[in-house]
Amino acid sequence: MAILYTRIVFLLFVFFLSSSAFASFSPADEYLVNCGSDVDSTVDNRRFVGDASASKVKFFSSEGSIALKGENLALNVPQIYRTARIFAQQAKYKFNVREQGTHMVRLHFNRLYSSKIDLNDALFHVTVNGHVVLRNFSGDDKDSSSDFESRVREFLIWVDVGEVVIRFVPSKDSNFAFVNAIEVISAPKDLIGDAATSVSHDGTEKFNGLAKQAMEVVYRINVGGRKVTPFNDTLWRTWVPDDEFLKTGDGSSEKTYFTGRIKYRSGGASREVGPDNVYNTARVGKRSNGLVDMSWDFKVSAGYKYLIRMHFCDIASKSLGRLYFNIYINGNLAYQDFDISYAADDVLASPYYIDFVVDATADDNNSPSGSSITVSVGPSNKTNVDEHGVDAILNGVEIMKMNNSMGSLDGYVSTEMILSTCPNRRNLSIFIAMLAFMCIFMSFYIVTQRKKVKDQYGWTKLSMDILEDNPKSGNQFAARKA
């Protein structure tokens, strides 16, 4: 009996540890909306609520919107991409939030085929809490590698007030806006810190105020590993392999995999910052393979600052204190002699990340097509070199565009400029109706006033004794004439 009791206690203890270690993130605010659908849909074990259901809370505000169902869709198209909500005029979704801080806003687009509406005519702007996040957007993703042309645009928005407002504005009267699904989720407190290291030709300096910047996720890369889907990420993110971005030849870098437990700890990266599937794979560089630097190149839009988050987890070293390396951004030294053991509190396989900010400028030819960001890791003079030693390592990279001085993530425009140049058709109709009413009212008022003046100052009926042609008194007018 004592042995059985001991086993039960042990199993409960193991279960408690496993539950604590792999407990999923539970956000204070979470809205998942299946736009244009009257039924709820489940994708990756997540329930998206249909916004066309009469029994559900109405999130959007737009009279005359259309719920559209796609036609001739492949069987593998997820349910949230089978319907869309179409807006022929300015519209908004409003979500009440309970928690102040960064919120993840994901907008899902899939240009459905429909015999009723041609989505090729879609062209619109999107704003989120006063930030222009998309401008003259068509919802098209020409670079999509999936069987259906879907696109997820993800933004990180700081929320001071108690709501997130997403506006859709058709670019012209002949265009319309659409969206297939929306996610609004409060982010973990440790996802975006307030400070980073700014890197330029002049060196490095501290960058403050990062947390309240609006940002768009441009790249999320799993270095040395496979694609990570939302199902395998605690924040339902997608990480893509790094192969197409790697500039260094494959012969000078090696992929490495780790089958042990990733040791998350206080002060390091949490599972919400980066999942196990990112930290248990990496690329490592070795000078024995002729390595100088491992580099990755990313195309970006010029004229913005970018947050570059680099993820590290030493899953390759045999012992502590042997791996030092340098970090470069666009060829500029961002961190010299990075001691990954010290950063991880002398724990192997313990994740850590560093945030850098860089100002992306146009290339030498001032090409309007944009610019590029290159991130590199290379050997340090402090590295203990041996035949099997590792000289550099990188597990993941995230690149996020930061809003410009206009508060925009897509062009040098403000929300006020967008709304003023793209009038709401409903508001225009109301204005015309009000103008017509005012004209009728003013006409009625003028007629009334004229009648009133006529009553006060017009001809009055003369006395009968004056008007009568009496021989005794005579006609006064005739007498005056005479």
Automatic annotation (TrEMBL):
Residues 1-23 form the signal peptide. InterPro entries: ANXUR1/2-like (IPR045272), Malectin-like_Carb-bd_dom (IPR024788). It is a single-pass type I membrane protein. It is found in: Membrane. It comes from the Eukaryota. One of its GO terms (cellular component) is membrane. Pfam families: Malectin_like (PF12819). This is Malectin-like domain-containing protein. It comes from Arabidopsis arenosa (Sand rock-cress).
